[in-house]
Amino acid sequence: MVFHHFLVFATFFWFVLCRSNKSPWVCLTCSSVHCGRYVNGHAKKHYEDAQIPMTNKKTEKQEKVQHTVCMDCSSYSTYCYRCDDFVVNDTKLGLVQKVREHLQNLENSAFTSDRHRKRKLLENSSLNSKLLKVNGSTTALCATGLRNLGNTCFMNAILQSLSNIQQFCCYFKELPAVELRNGKTAGRRTYHTRSQGDNNVSLVEEFRKTLCALWQGSQTAFSPESLFYVVWKIMPNFRGYQQQDAHEFMRYLLDHLHLELQGGFNGVSRSVILQENSNLSASNKCCINGASTVVTAIFGGILQNEVNCLICGTESRKFDPFLDLSLDIPSQFRNKRTKSQESGPMCTLRDCLRSFTDLEELDETELYMCHKCKKKQKSTKKFWIQKLPKVLCLHLKRFHWTAYLRNKVDTYVEFPLRGLDMKCYLLEPENSGPESCLYDLVAVVVHHGSGVGSGHYTAYAAHEGRWFHFNDSTVTLTDEETVGKAKAYILFYVERQAKPGAEKL
């Protein structure tokens, strides 16, 4: 009982005085509270000390002590350093659950509101960037950061970008919550671990919870642990804590959201949920791997791939659905690293789009199998956009393999914040209205560093007319000039609603 009273006091003391964006973690060996799981290596040191060889034979009790654990005071998840995993096991006396209950009682106690008030005062006094001047009045910054769980900036940048695509985000936030457990565990918080089966997790549900936590203004940073461990379950490529490619993660995330939505959600047919959103009409849907979902309705477009045999002139056409377009940076621009460099012309997004859609002669390694000639022949290839998506995602191919390494193309590419005109890349531009081909920028993902396996990801995104910079748990207000100077890796453009006076690329 003394331990629990000390724990309550220590946790309260942390909430009142600590200004960190990291979650408080309590060591369940000695009840010390620190900011983050590895701060000062405190709880981990208990585990390391227990590994020191002993002259006498270890008893069963000593063996159990080696499972040194700590608990996140915000999510109540328990982490074991020996197992290197979040665990759901408890002691025979249920001591871990008792700690959770004490923390929950602390949250619901009479002085909780006073704790939040004091903490807000400390945050507001030290973080002036959290206040905005709008029309002469001061308003609170409602944006919420995402805590880095160990090289998870690639995931955070994508999640923040998607959270600012309003039609996509609102769809998930309006979905009904899913209770993954029943019986004795119904109503309890679910703690995901790597040892659980795939049937116990829902990517759509954890994605929904994460989006709901952002932009509420109730906390400075949110820890997406549950979502991250679901990602570990269903996307083996992203297990571990090494740096990952943000574009690759985005594609995996959208593909798996699409597949899970196709299978129904909380007992409700996916098609029923999709039909309830009147903005996603059948004409806006693009089917990829089966029936349409909100993923394909928002991001789905269609390419026409034309291949012409240079020997007999036979033309082959194929329609390919896409969720994003990967654009090469033309080789003549690859030495121009900054916007301010004077030598040579500036690389623009139009140059990258033109390189993608221009007529290209295939080399010897890509000979086309001509059905008329009955053998592989030299040919040309050209892409047309047959249908534009509601949200156009453009990926600039900054990483290229050389003989042994994957190098980064650090060229600055100029891109418009408003009025990206895609009409000239359409297969039938005459069938499109004057406004239907114009796009406005809503989010940008930037990679800082020299290699895909290193560096850092951040994101810029527009929300209610203001631009924000998302750097893991830190969110700051920025301006259009700063956004325009970024070396974009992924660009998200939203189809413009009919408005006069559009500025073109």
Structure overview:
- The structure is a single chain.
- With 505 residues, the chain is α+β, with helices and mostly antiparallel strands.
- It has helices spanning 2-17, 42-50, 60-65, 95-107, 112-126, 153-163, 166-173, 203-213, 225-234, 246-262, 270-276, 294-299, 349-357, 480-484, and strands at residues 24-27, 33-35, 69-72, 78-80, 85-87, 131-134, 137-140, 145-146, 221-222, 301-309, 315-322, 325-328, 360-361, 368-370, 375-377, 379-387, 391-397, 399-401, 406-408, 420-421, 438-448, 456-463, 466-471, 474-478, 488-495.
- The strands form 7 sheets. Strands 12, 17, 20, 21, 22, 23, 24 and 25 form an 8-stranded mixed beta sheet that branches.
- Strand 1 (24-27) and strand 2 (33-35) form a beta hairpin.
- Helix 1 runs parallel beside helix 5 (112-126).
- The termini are far apart.
- Mean pLDDT is 76; it is low at 1-6, 12-17, 60-64, 121-139, 180-198 and 265-285.
- Keywords: Hydrolase, Metal-binding, Protease, Signal, Thiol protease, Ubl conjugation pathway, Zinc, Zinc-finger.
- This is Ubiquitin carboxyl-terminal hydrolase.
- Residues 1-18 form the signal peptide.
- Residues 1-106 form the UBP-type domain.
- Residues 144-496 form the USP domain.
Number of helices: 14
Distance between the termini: 68 Å
Q: How many strand segments?
A: 25
- Multimer state: single chain
Portion of residues in beta strands equals 15-25%
What share of residues is helical? Answer: 25-40%
The helix/strand class is alpha+beta
State the shape.
elongated
Protein name: Ubiquitin carboxyl-terminal hydrolase
EC number: 3.4.19.12
InterPro entries: Papain-like_cys_pep_sf (IPR038765), Peptidase_C19_UCH (IPR001394), Ub_carboxyl-term_hydrolase (IPR050185), USP (IPR028889), USP_CS (IPR018200), Znf_RING/FYVE/PHD (IPR013083), Znf_UBP (IPR001607)
Keywords: Hydrolase, Metal-binding, Protease, Signal, Thiol protease, Ubl conjugation pathway, Zinc, Zinc-finger
